[in-house]
Specification:
CATH architecture of the largest domain: Alpha-Beta Complex
Family: Belongs to the peptidase S41A family.
GO cellular component, one term: outer membrane-bounded periplasmic space
Number of helices: 21
Protein name: Tail-specific protease
Number of domains: 3
GO molecular function, one term: serine-type peptidase activity
Helix content: 40-55%
Radius of gyration: 27 Å
Strand content: 15-25%
Oligomer: single chain
Number of strands: 19
Keywords: Coiled coil, Hydrolase, Protease, Serine protease, Signal
Structural class: alpha+beta
């Protein structure tokens, strides 16, 4: 995100963005929650803000009313596990009236639906608890049964029998997963009993404010996924977090069904350095210290999970996770030492890689930029040596030039954005002057930002390395370099975050809404589509799970007028040759062969949406997966003339760390090396092209 919605902002926003998914009270004493008078006024304030300030001009009518209803039901019961089909049919009478109620400040329907949800979840939890407390309860893991893992296209259960059958399988799957994680069946039953009792006990914590926020966000999400309402309590947490006064692991989290999902790792944060967490991993348990017991957090509210993960600097937190790239339901326990993310640790860093090309040695400078940062406090104090992305990068460029590098790689992988000012000024280090980005407001007015300084810090050949987690300001920089044909863009399709958000106070809480959109100087938006690299590298990030296009209701890609601008190098004649050379190398490179096999395997696994409930079958599938991974790793190691490993866990001890203590991934290094080879191809072919042209 940009400036006001920096990576820190994204972290905190994500930490606060979960819907109330599993809050219940006892079915024997289900209390009906009602809206408070301030909520009736606030929903009207939200509508007013959306109508006046949001980028999208969306009319609150019957069609939108139906979408709000669908979104609200999806937010409450995403797995279609609590409501009956008859409940959903009953709610259809409200499909065309929510718009009128919202305009009038009426919230009765929203609370009626939520109270029904409370009743259904309470009924189900009490039945699960009764089942697990029954001494006669037994589960047969020898039957050939399966559980549907993706219920997005399924219907709500039609009656009690179908509801019971779904939950019988779901309970069996949960027990089997714990059993295969080395728990006895008695221990597994105890874990689940505590899980459901904990969810039931949380019922008393659900209040009218929680319901209102959930419903208000069903409305705001119709405008775009980044527009969001914060209640006063959530606003207070947001402001505390913006000051970075709390310590944790440095991860962007969100609720997904009953789990806590990793969205992004904060660059240079503890989780990033540990190298064990990845985007789309699911957190199912949290423990404290080396020997602390893992506490099951399935079904917990997001803020409660975050409270467990946070803690004093230097202490250990244990996370039980379901890896995104593992077999369905397979668990893994990792340890991370808590710390603060320091500005200097997010600063740009440089190094030199040496490669052979056409039998000649070359030195390439690499500048890794984790975020687009600026020390505003130091700037406002008048410090002449304040830190910023552009200033730090300029210094690193001078150091690299003094070492006679032959080319430069700007590494923006996993850079989620930051200051728009810095993105603009960083482009200015590589062009003499000119526009860098266009910003369009809701009225269609376009503001052009650019570089007016004719000085250039580096005028040599360059490449920009990006991936799916390169977002917002990173996309502005990469897009500008591509439009100017100042350098070659290598890597994966970027995130596609091309909108700007502002945070505005309301009488009750505050609203974050999208009020502008970014466009490249070519006229193309970065929204939804992101930046398409000139040379694509393999990626293990699932674009259906990660990226703007994976978000429901994401604003579409579009265009405005192109701004006349200079083009430094004509890639048209040489890109086909560069691409052919790259493709040829991929056929034989051990790391690329390994990554390609991983991508193929992940795509195959995505097609299988049924999870076996037979213990022997599921264990065999997991064994086969681990053996396959081990075999592929050893194939790669053999090709690279490295010693084979006996088990995958041995690999973690062999991985090196960088100067910031981050684990160096062989895949990440292979992508960087190939980017260097692409850059050297560009240098060679550009020289030939210029010679021919002259």
């Amino acid at each position: 995100m940009i400036h006001i919605t920096s990576i820190r902002h994204l972290l905190i926003t994500s930490l606060l963005s979960g819907f109330i998914l599993t809050s219940q009270v006892s079915a024997n004493a289900v209390s009906s929650l009602q809206p408070e008078p301030i909520h009736n006024q606030t929903i009207q304030d939200i509508v007013k803000s959306l109508n006046q300030d949001h980028y999208n001009d969306i009319v609150l009518n019957d069609e939108l009313s139906g979408k709000i209803l669908d979104q609200y039901l999806e937010a409450l019961d995403p797995s279609k596990a609590y409501f009956y089909h008859t409940d959903i049919e009953e709610f259809q009478q409200f499909r065309n009236q929510l718009d009128d109620e919202i305009r009038n400040g009426t919230l009765d329907t929203a609370y009626l639906i939520f109270n029904r949800f409370q009743l259904r979840t309470t009924e189900r939890l009490e039945k699960l608890i009764t089942t697990l407390e029954d001494p006669a309860f037994k589960t047969n893991f020898t039957l050939d049964e399966t559980l549907e893992t993706d219920r997005s296209e399924s219907n709500w259960p039609s009656n009690e029998a179908s509801m019971q059958e779904f939950w019988r399988k779901r309970l069996k799957s949960a027990l089997l997963g714990l059993k295969l994680a080395d728990k006895t069946i008695e221990e597994a039953e105890e874990v689940l009993l505590k899980r459901y009792q904990s969810q039931l006990a949380r019922a008393s914590q659900t209040n009218s404010e929680d319901v209102f926020q959930s419903y208000a966000n069903a409305l705001t999400k119709q405008f775009d996924p980044h527009t969001q309402y914060f209640s006063p309590r959530r606003s207070e947490n947001f402001n505390i977090n913006m000051s970075l006064s709390l310590e944790g692991i440095g991860a962007v989290l969100q609720s997904e069904n009953e789990h806590t999902k990793i969205v992004r790792l904060v660059p240079a944060g503890p989780a990033d350095k540990a190298g064990q967490l990845k985007p789309a991993d699911l957190i199912v348990g949290v423990g404290q210290g080396d020997d602390g017991e893992i506490q099951d957090v399935v079904g917990w509210r997001l803020d409660e999970v975050v409270a467990l993960i946070r803690g004093p600097k230097g202490t250990i937190v244990k996370l039980e996770i379901i890896p995104a790239d593992g077999e369905e339901g397979q668990h893994k326990i990792i340890q991370i030492r808590r710390n603060k993310v320091k500005l200097e640790e997010q600063a740009a860093q440089s190094r030199i890689i040496e490669l052979q090309h056409q039998d000649k040695p070359y030195k390439l400078g690499v500048i890794s930029i984790p975020a687009f940062y600026i020390d505003f406090a130091a700037l406002q104090r008048g410090d002449t040596d304040y830190k910023s992305t552009t200033r730090d990068t300029a210094k690193l460029i001078e150091e690299l030039k003094s070492q006679d590098v032959d080319g430069l790689i700007i590494d923006l992988r996993n850079n989620g954005g930051g200051s728009l000012r810095e993105a603009n000024e960083l482009v200015g280090l590589f062009i003499s002057r000119g526009p860098t980005v266009q910003i369009r407001d809701p009225e269609g007015r376009v503001n052009i930002m650019g570089d007016s300084d004719p000085r250039v810090a580096y005028n040599g050949p360059m490449a920009v390395l990006v991936n799916r987690l390169s977002a917002s300001a990173s996309e502005i920089f990469a897009g500008a370099i591509q439009d100017y044909q100042r350098g070659i863009i290598v890597g994966g399709q970027t995130f596609g975050k091309g909108t700007v958000q502002t945070l505005s106070p309301l009488r009750h809480g505050q609203i974050k809404l999208t009020h502008a959109k970014f466009y490249r100087i070519s006229g193309e938006s970065t929204q939804n589509k992101g930046v398409i690299p000139d040379i694509s590298l393999p990626t293990l990030y699932d674009t259906e799970e990660i990226g703007e296009s994976a978000l429901d209701g994401a604003m579409p890609w579009d265009k405005v007028h192109e701004i006349p601008h200079q083009r430094y190098i004509s890639f048209t004649s040489i890109l086909p040759e560069i691409s052919d050379r790259h493709s040829e190398r991929r056929k034989f490179d051990p790391d690329f062969l390994y990554m390609n096999s991983q991508v193929q395997r992940l795509n195959e696994n995505k097609k299988d949406r049924l999870l076996s409930l037979n213990e022997k079958t599921l264990q065999a599938e997991r064994n086969e997966s681990e053996n396959w991974l081990l075999a592929k790793e050893n194939e790669r190691r053999t090709a690279k003339k490295l010693d084979n490993i006996k088990k995958l866990s041995d690999l973690e001890e062999l991985l090196e760390k960088d100067s910031q203590g981050r684990t160096i991934s062989p895949e990440a290094e292979a992508l960087l090396t190939e980017t260097g080879r692409v850059l050297l191809d560009m240098i060679e072919l550009t020289d030939k092209y210029i010679a021919i042209k002259n």
